[in-house]
Specification:
It contains 6 helices and 5 strands. By secondary structure, it is of the alpha/beta class. It folds into 2 domains: 56 residues, ATP synthase, gamma subunit, helix hairpin domain (Helix Hairpins), CATH 1.10.287; 210 residues, 3-Layer(aba) Sandwich (Pyruvate Kinase, Chain: A, domain 1), CATH 3.40.1380. Helix 2 runs antiparallel to helix 6 and helix 3 packs across helix 4. The longest helix has 75 residues. The radius of gyration is 28 Å and the shape is elongated.
Length: 289
């Protein structure tokens, strides 16, 4: 049984931990509010861009030869899998969920493709996949520790170039989609070839005069659409990180309080037992005299 001093020191340590987790919860809550706003703002633009690209591609009646980024290849041999995680921990199972989903994808599709390459965005995902023994084709580093649109555009240009060079036949992204402060869902999105929205029937009779021509517009829109979807995933992942960290730190603070109460009760009982023992010794000594 631990001594009174050891129990007292442990109570002090748990209280200090409680202060830290409470402060981290408040910081995460503050960041989450801004992150939620950042997730919401570009959604309308991303949706409109996707609709514009899909509508234009259907009207232009493109072929696979003119725009291969928009067409599935009949036989997919090589696939690029991008795992998006955070650079920091203390956010529950957020990062490990992406790692597990990546591992499951590798196992489930082992016989479907000749080769599956993995790229990592985020320190935690990279470390987790390396621990499992997977080789990482490339680790993308953020600009000035911020996952911004510049990084999304850089990755989009690189992936589009390699896709056109037939280094791989599809690109999938695994990340945490933000649902609410306490709910995050791991999803797999196909980034290449770009999935087009079906053209609404009422929009088909109407056409426009394009300047420059339709093909040049598509050449500019498709990579930007890819970059925008990746940037939206960055925002979703960051908001999920803050929500998960806030929840994890709230649980840690609650657990620390419960542990403090148990240790305090244990300390008081041990102290009471020590005092009782001393009194018994004094009384026994007095009776002996």
């Amino acid at each position: 049984m631990p001594s009174l001093r050891e129990t007292k020191n442990r109570i002090k340590a748990v209280k200090n931990t409680e202060k830290i987790t409470k402060a981290m919860k408040m910081v995460a809550a503050s960041k989450l509010k801004r992150a939620q706003e950042a997730v919401t703002k570009p959604r309308a633009f991303a949706s409109k861009l996707s609709h514009l690209m899909s509508s234009l591609s259907h009207r232009a009646e493109i072929t696979e030869g003119s725009h291969p980024l928009l067409f599935d290849r009949p036989h997919k041999k090589n696939v690029m899998l991008i795992a998006l995680t955070s650079d920091r921990g203390l956010c529950g199972a957020l990062n490990s969920s992406v790692v597990r989903m990546t591992q499951r994808f590798m196992v489930d599709h082992e016989d479907d493709y000749e080769r599956i390459d993995i790229s990592a965005i985020g320190k935690k995902g990279f470390e987790g996949l390396v621990r499992l023994g997977y080789a990482i084709a490339k680790k993308f580093e953020p600009h000035e520790k911020v996952y911004d649109f510049l990084l999304a555009r850089q990755i989009a240009e690189e992936m589009c170039t390699k896709f056109l060079a037939k280094d791989f036949d599809a690109v999938y992204l695994i990340y945490n989609q933000f649902k609410s402060a306490i709910t995050q869902e791991v999803v797999i999105d196909q980034l290449l070839p770009v999935v087009r929205e079906p053209l609404v029937t009422k929009d088909q009779p109407v056409d426009f005069i394009y300047e420059p021509n339709q093909m040049e517009l598509l050449d500019a829109l498709v990579p930007r659409h890819f970059a925008m979807r990746l940037y939206q995933a960055f925002l979703e992942s960051y908001a999920s990180e803050q929500g998960a960290r806030m929840t994890a730190m709230d649980n840690a603070t609650r657990n620390a309080k419960e542990m403090t109460e148990k240790l305090t009760l244990q300390y008081n009982r041990a102290r009471q037992a020590a005092i009782t023992k001393e009194l018994m010794e004094i009384i026994g000594g007095a009776e002996a005299l």
